[in-house]
Amino acid sequence: MLRPEHTTVSRVWCEVAIVALAAFAIAGGCDWFNDPSQVNLPPDTTITACPSSWLVPPGDDVTVEWEGSDPDGQVVEYEWTFDDTLGGTTTETSMLIEAVEEGTHTFTVASVDNDGEVDASPAECTFTASLGDYVERVVLCELLTTKICPNCWVADYALVRSLHEFGRENLSVVSYHYSPPPDPLNTEEVSDRCDWYYTFFDIATVFPVTIFEGLTADDGAADTTSTIVAYRMQIEARQAIGSPVSIELDGEIDGGRGSVTATVRVHHQLTGGPHTLRMMVVEDGIDDGTHIVNFVVRDILEEEPLAVGAPGDFISVTRDFVIDGWNPQNLDVVAFVQDDTSAEILQSGRLLTEQ
User: Fold this and answer.
1) What is the pLDDT of residue 7?
2) pLDDT tens per residue, range 329-339
């Protein structure tokens, strides 16, 4: 309770304080003292579509999309720039950029509200137009063999040694057991695969024949030393050439069944073609009664034509299979992309690289 003698003094100090605060507010020192409806809030802009997650082939058209909002009014137009060389205003919420040149590009857009205020933090879309970069190659060796063959085991052994030398992360191997002559490890689809190669290379049906990357056919295997050396030269030659695609494999082999998903990603513009993704279930360590043979193709899964070709494109393909009396501990899946016109293997990969 104020004492009587203090009442006048207190009233005077209150009046002084009110006058001072009012003067401060009128001078613009405190917005909360003003009418909130008179404060203009800035607009905001968001990019909703931008090709930033993939490479754009040079010469292609690019579309950028965006949206704007204003908390206390409405957006009436947008200010935009492209590579700091072009710019303007538009009332649209998308823009087509035609025939982009090779390189990295930046598009910015800022909302403008009905009070003329511009978004101080424009939305930005940055993308790259490029044919892309090549990636490391996993070389594929395909062995055409059969049980009644006196030196086919030499080629098999040379490929085992090659696999140890280069590692499963750098080398894939499959072997096709042909029939006739009779081979219990043969299937009709395996013979069809061999016949396709014999026709493509226009060579007689001889064994063994090792196909490197679908490009060269090395027939015969006189002795282990010379064969290992010959295979090494072929593998190293292909390793030195980058691949335009990569292959990632994921899956499991368990309980009498298997499943594998292969994802093919394009890193450099594909040429030639048509291209096909092929996947094969292979088994190691099989006793055929004469030798221990490896990389035996047990099942050729349904192939997939590739409808991708531009950098950044990708496709994922899943295939299931039944384990038909094979040893699941020795099974693997090899996938590869092949140009069906030239027979060139663009890339390969293995599922169980930890074996």
Assistant:
1) 41
2) 999 999 999 99
- Interval 132-182: pLDDT, tens: 889 999 999 999 999 989 999 999 999 999 999 999 999 999 999 999 878
CA-derived radius of gyration, the chain = 34
Q: Which of 84, 80, 4, 71 is nearest to 39 (CA)?
A: 71
Domain at 139-350, CATH from 2.40.340.10, 3.90.550.10, 2.60.40.10, 1.10.10.10: 2.60.40.10
CATH 2.60.40.10 placement within the chain: 42-129, 139-350
Alpha-carbon distance of 169 to 205, in angstroms, equals: 31
Burial 187-215 (b: 16+ CB within 10 A, else e): beebbebbeebbeebeeeeebbbbbbbbe
What's the predicted TM-score (pTM) here? 0.70
The answer to whether 311 touches 102, Cβ cutoff 8 Å, is no
Question: How many other CB atoms sit within 10 Å of the CB of residue 313?
Answer: 19
Please name the fold of domain 42-129: Immunoglobulin-like (2.60.40)
320, 262 Cβ separation under 8 angstroms: no
CA angle 203, 208, 214 (to 5 degrees): 60
Of 126, 122, 125, the closest CA to residue 68 belongs to 122
Question: Is 48:15 a contact under the CB 8 Å cutoff?
Answer: no
What is the signed CA dihedral for 341, 346, 352, 355, rounded to 10 degrees?
Answer: 110
